[in-house]
Amino acid sequence: ITSARRMLLQVGLQATPRYSGRRPAMNVGIVVDAREPLDAAALEHVRTLLSAFAAARDPNDKLSLFAAGPAGGALVTGEAFRHGPLSVALQRVQTERSGISVSLPDALQAALQQVRGGGDPVSPLGSSVAIVVAPRSLGAELARLEAIAHDALPIAVFCDGFRYHVMPERAECRLGDDLYKRRAIVQSGRMH
């Protein structure tokens, strides 16, 4: 189009079943790659991401936090997924650098077990997900995570930073919108 023109645009909408306008319960396992200490910016982005999930949490949602690295494993689950316990868990992961280290694939497997164990068999496809938050490139481990991902549960990997998804400088957050888009992709059957 090189100049002003009139166009006819037709949009078709197809409704999906929703229960009283409320979204279905989410069952989310979040895995933070803390094998190396997070820098200040990455730590703030993780805090913002977790705060957004905690703020959007409905009573029926099952959210859990896991970490890879020293002091890793299951950090916060169930009703404890709120600001105080999340802050304490992140501080512990940042400061405790000795002891047994949990690998990223092992932390992801633990999160998947938690998500699968708490899943409702009649919940809509896409309402259960594992999210891997990696502040740096995953390199060779990406292939191993992809192999785990093919085990029938959607896994989202954020390696490009959190700013676009969380938007810490603004009051709104894209997490809910991202979740609906992921669910639509899963329901379409066109995901890779």
Descriptive keywords:
192 residues; alpha/beta; 6 helices
Describe the structure.
It is a single chain. Helix 1 (40-56) packs antiparallel against helix 2 (83-95) and helix 3 packs parallel to helix 4. The chain is 37% helix and 17% strand. With 192 residues, it is α/β, with parallel strands linked by helices. Helix 4 links the parallel strand 5 and strand 6 (155-158). It has six helices and six strands. Strands 1, 2, 3, 4, 5 and 6 form a six-stranded mixed β-sheet that branches. The chain starts with 26 loop residues before the first strand and ends with a helix. The model has no long low-confidence stretch (mean pLDDT 77). The protein has helices at 40-56, 83-95, 104-117, 141-149, 163-166, 175-188, and strands spanning 27-33, 62-70, 73-77, 101-102, 128-133, 155-158.
Set out the fold topology:
Blueprint: E1 27-33, H1 40-56, E2 62-70, E3 73-77, H2 83-95, E4 101-102, H3 104-117, E5 128-133, H4 141-149, E6 155-158, H5 163-166, H6 175-188
Parallel strand pairs: 1-2, 1-5, 5-6
Antiparallel strand pairs: 2-3, 2-4
Helix pairs in contact: 1-2, 3-4
Q: Which radius of gyration do the C-alpha atoms yield?
A: 18 Å
What does the largest sheet look like?
6 strands, mixed
SSE string: EHEEHEHEHEHH
Question: Residue ranges: pLDDT <50 for 5 or more in a row?
Answer: none
The outline comes out as globular
N/C terminus separation: 34 Å
- Output the structural class: alpha/beta
Strand content: 15-25%
How many helices in DSSP terms? 6
Number of strands: 6
